[in-house]
Amino acid sequence: MLRRDTRLRREYLYRKSLEGKEREYYEKKRKIRQALDEGKPIPTELRNEEASLRREIDLEDDHTAIPKSLIDDEYSNARESDPKILLTTSRNPSAPLTQFVKELKIIFPNSSRMNRGGQVISEIIESAKSHDFTDVILVHEHRGIPDGLIVSHLPFGPTAYFGLLNVVTRHDIKDRKSIGTMSEAYPHLILDKFSTKIGERTANILKHLFPVPKPDSKRIITFANQSDYISFRHHVYEKHGGPKSIDLKEVGPRFELRLYQIKLGTVDQTEAQNEWVIRPYMNTAKKRSILGD
Q1: Element (DSSP H or E) covering residue 206
Q2: Exposure of 209 by Cβ count < 10 A (0-12 exposed, 13-18 middle, 19+ buried)?
Q3: For residues 16 and 68, is the Cβ–Cβ distance under 8 A?
Q4: Does pLDDT of 209 surpass 60?
Q5: CB–CB of 125/154 below 8 Å?
Q6: How many CA within 13 A on the CB side of residue 121?
Q7: Whole-angstrom distance, CA of residue 108 vs CA of residue 175
Q8: What confidence tens digit (pLDDT) does each residue in 237-270 have?
Q9: What is the value of pTM for the model shown?
Q10: What is the C-alpha to C-alpha distance for residues 62 and 64, in angstroms, rounded to an integer?
């Protein structure tokens, strides 16, 4: 198992190393194409390669003109099987955190909850890989209040780090009649206002935690971005009086997510490269939207 993981990781890193070379080659062709379109002379540093680059440009079409990023190659096998998620917590979880993770288990189909015990992160990741889990979700707390959520995709990453805010579980709601029953059907997803490159990357990480639902599923999960805070809502609906009469009920739990880091690797790899990380000065840029408008 260890040899296989090492070989797969080496192959992935090799494919990723080719991305920089392809990007450099694409920039050369772009400069040639721009010079031809504007009727300007070919840049001096590209004149020795002009003939071969022009042949490449003539053979390109809409699908091959722009090189595809290998960053999303981590999800290349996502369509072959449904996601399988391992849920765990920080050590010695409090009762509120345990209750919250129990509700997360129902939110994510095909998920399993594991008591952390004395296991370290590397042991959890190794165990998850050996049992063919596709993702590991770790939930942290501060003084009994859930305040952090880590989503790590296996076997190569990426890993997204979120802050948790305003957590309200079903257990906290006193009026039981106002909430719907917790369905276990595969949910439809609504991903709202993830328009930037980092926003699309975040939406891609979140959507691959859920399998493809059936068309008649009456369960809806929403990730709505507002000022870089992602609101999570969980609803079910019924059509009592036909298609124009829809009864929508919130199921819960509800919480807000705040992305602060994306790492190109699993959560146990301390040497993994940061794809994006929030910086202190970003908090003062009021007009800047990281995830979307």
Answers
A1: helix 197-207
A2: buried
A3: no
A4: yes
A5: yes
A6: 14
A7: 24
A8: 888 776 677 888 888 899 999 999 999 889 998 8
A9: 0.80
A10: 6
In the numeric block, the tokens 């594991």 are attached to 114
CA distance 141 to 199: 25
Q: Output Rg (C-alpha) for the chain, integer angstroms.
A: 23
Residues 6+ apart with CB under 8 A from 106: 182, 184
Q: How many other C-beta atoms are found inside a 10 Å radius of the C-beta of residue 29?
A: 18
- Written as one letter, the residue type at 143 is R
Question: To the nearest 5 percent, what fractions of the chain are helix, strand and coil?
Answer: 35, 25, 40
Give per-residue pLDDT as tens, 185-205.
Answer: 999 999 999 999 899 999 999
Q: What are the residues whose beta carbons fall under 8 Å from the beta carbon of 89, sequence distance 6 or more?
A: 97, 98, 101, 116, 138, 139, 140, 141
The length of the chain is 293
Angle (deg, nearest 10), helices 2-38 and 50-59? 100
